[in-house]
Amino acid sequence: MEHAYVHLLHVLAGHPGCTLAVVFLAAFLEAVAVIGTFIPGSTAMFLAGALVGTGSLNLGWLFACAIAGAVGGDGLSYWLGSRYKATIVQLWPFRTHPQVFDAGQKFFAKHGAKSIVFARFIGPLRAIVPVVVGMLGMSPIRFYSVNVLSALLWAPAHILPGVVFGASVQVAGAVSFRLVVMLMLLAGIVWLTARVVRFALSHAASWARQARLALYSWARRREGVVGRIALRTFNPDRPAIGVIVSASVLVVASAWVFFGVLQDVVSGDPLLRVDASVYHFMQSIRTPWGDIVLSDCATLGSVAALAALAVTAVLWMLWERHWRALGYWLSAIVFSQLLVFAIQFAVHRVPPGSLPSDTYAFPSNHVAAVVIVYGFLVFFVARRVGSLTSLIIATTSAVIVVVVALTGLYFGRFWFSDAIAGAALAAVWVSIVALTVAWQQPTAPASRGFLPATMLAVLCCSVVLQIMGNQPPGGVEDMRRTTLVLGTEAQWTDSLWRGLPCYRSDMDGDRQEPFSIQWSANAATLVSQLRVQGWVEGTDLSAHSLLSLASPHASAMALPVLPRLNNGVPSSLVFVRPGATRDERDVLRFWPSGYVIDDGNHGRTMPLWQGSLVHERLFRASWPINILHTDAEAQADPKGQGRWLAGSGVRVPVTKNCHGIPITLLTSPTE
């Protein structure tokens, strides 16, 4: 996987002209009337910015192409409106969708020339407002002056976040490819969830209207009690009919998903192989830092956070005197959890990982509780705010639910199918509550614009308090802890050294730089003896040192020395010394091996360290990112490393050969 990723970056870096051409076309076509609706120009700008962050593109040329494309696309739309102002409304799709022009005209009437700038950031209006401006006869000089200004604001707003993300990926890749996978996974989940929610909500009204008409037509053909109830339920004149129909459809869809997953789990369907694959993949990308970050993310769905949100919602409904809605929701929480526990004891499916064997995972009660709370809050808050705020709330809640489910998969608390089943079962209850409340209280409550801010403040306070009081998850310490093995120096130089790997391993099965040094010494002795040889301890990661990655004149020695992972464990000691030029340096990293060596002197022992020696060269393919690459062709001489380490009390008992890699065994006296 890592080789494919590196190869992709090399391919993109080797064809910057093609990439910039794609950026120009994306920015151009996104601003063209009709076509722009189907072109993901903003996504293309973000991805292009990420390539700048990885050093594959030049930032200046990217800005130039994006701005030129945006100005040209709006210019073409303006010309179409000016040239065909009398006939363009008769052309498809404007003829069949006159509301598009109505929205553009209302927006221009409200904001005037500023609408060109504002519309640049609003998808549905981006390609329509320039056409409307051309139809209404705005002068070219005035239009292009505002058009260029809008492009100058739009391009950095979409590209710079991508640059930051790409630089983060580049830094993470220099530490461990596991972190790259984790960043990509989180970013992909957030992006995909947001896109799915946005697409679903933007089409929900149309889908609900079509479903309502179909159901109403079906109900009119039915006779008896069922027909009368259905006719009354799906009457187009009934208030809140859209919510009722949407909730009804969601109940059926969620129940279908749950029973489908339940059948697969009970019958041992291939879905179980997907569960195993997801679990093993998550374990393969685990790192101590990932554990800490995702442990903090898990607080969004913790019992404390859910309880804080639930109490706030309860108090609010009590204040509004919505007794029935409160009763339905609390009943859904209680009965859904009881049903989950009943199914768990019936299915008896144990979770992965190291959880107790008497814990059952199908369906996940944790995911179900998160969906019950956040799902109802979306319905509860959305009825009291505008459509745009509702979209933001629904998207944020969906992202939180998915991230919380991801943390459970990452820590092995439940299987993938457990999460799907728990979410589907909870969605059934949320939909039933929404359907019941909308049926009995069809009129939307009074607007409460400050309600989202209140809920957000409660959630943030709960999360901050939990993070401040959190201890690192047990998995972090477990990954760092190794069982120490005692050996003598004779055993070490004779056979013990063979038990240590010859190469650093990041992901399972890969080979990174060789472990060319094994050093038996206390950490303090090792540090002092390397200082004598001209080595200095690497710069710790900090806000100041990370800013040097964007300095146009930084030397290699001024840049932070990033730790690297070996089987998920970061290097404990890092040292650096200058190279032949200011753009080069040697880097020496050490990991604890898990062995201690008896020096034969009154039973005193010294830890055994594994070290890798690499030569790094500064690569400035695209300012503002300084990238240090390991220079395989100019590696520090591993055969001669015993000469520069010998002396000052450092002894080289022997040099071994590990699959063609010279391994220097070093020892230092105890103090």
Automatic annotation (TrEMBL):
<feature type="transmembrane region" description="Helical">
    <location>
        <begin position="419"/>
        <end position="438"/>
    </location>
</feature>
<dbReference type="Pfam" id="PF09335">
    <property type="entry name" value="VTT_dom"/>
</dbReference>
<feature type="transmembrane region" description="Helical">
    <location>
        <begin position="359"/>
        <end position="381"/>
    </location>
</feature>
<dbReference type="InterPro" id="IPR000326">
    <property type="entry name" value="PAP2/HPO"/>
</dbReference>
<feature type="transmembrane region" description="Helical">
    <location>
        <begin position="20"/>
        <end position="39"/>
    </location>
</feature>
<feature type="domain" description="Phosphatidic acid phosphatase type 2/haloperoxidase">
    <location>
        <begin position="359"/>
        <end position="439"/>
    </location>
</feature>
<keyword id="KW-1133">Transmembrane helix</keyword>
<feature type="transmembrane region" description="Helical">
    <location>
        <begin position="240"/>
        <end position="262"/>
    </location>
</feature>
<feature type="domain" description="LssY-like C-terminal">
    <location>
        <begin position="498"/>
        <end position="622"/>
    </location>
</feature>
<dbReference type="Pfam" id="PF14067">
    <property type="entry name" value="LssY_C"/>
</dbReference>
<feature type="transmembrane region" description="Helical">
    <location>
        <begin position="117"/>
        <end position="136"/>
    </location>
</feature>
<feature type="transmembrane region" description="Helical">
    <location>
        <begin position="388"/>
        <end position="413"/>
    </location>
</feature>
<dbReference type="InterPro" id="IPR032816">
    <property type="entry name" value="VTT_dom"/>
</dbReference>
<dbReference type="GO" id="GO:0005886">
    <property type="term" value="C:plasma membrane"/>
</dbReference>
<keyword id="KW-1003">Cell membrane</keyword>
<keyword id="KW-0472">Membrane</keyword>
<feature type="transmembrane region" description="Helical">
    <location>
        <begin position="46"/>
        <end position="71"/>
    </location>
</feature>
<dbReference type="InterPro" id="IPR032818">
    <property type="entry name" value="DedA-like"/>
</dbReference>
<comment type="similarity">
    <text>Belongs to the DedA family.</text>
</comment>
<protein>
    <submittedName>
        <fullName>DedA protein</fullName>
    </submittedName>
</protein>
<feature type="transmembrane region" description="Helical">
    <location>
        <begin position="175"/>
        <end position="194"/>
    </location>
</feature>
<dbReference type="InterPro" id="IPR025902">
    <property type="entry name" value="LssY-like-C_dom"/>
</dbReference>
<feature type="transmembrane region" description="Helical">
    <location>
        <begin position="450"/>
        <end position="469"/>
    </location>
</feature>
<feature type="transmembrane region" description="Helical">
    <location>
        <begin position="326"/>
        <end position="347"/>
    </location>
</feature>
<feature type="domain" description="VTT">
    <location>
        <begin position="39"/>
        <end position="162"/>
    </location>
</feature>
<keyword id="KW-0812">Transmembrane</keyword>
<dbReference type="InterPro" id="IPR036938">
    <property type="entry name" value="PAP2/HPO_sf"/>
</dbReference>
<feature type="transmembrane region" description="Helical">
    <location>
        <begin position="148"/>
        <end position="169"/>
    </location>
</feature>
<dbReference type="Pfam" id="PF01569">
    <property type="entry name" value="PAP2"/>
</dbReference>
<feature type="transmembrane region" description="Helical">
    <location>
        <begin position="298"/>
        <end position="319"/>
    </location>
</feature>
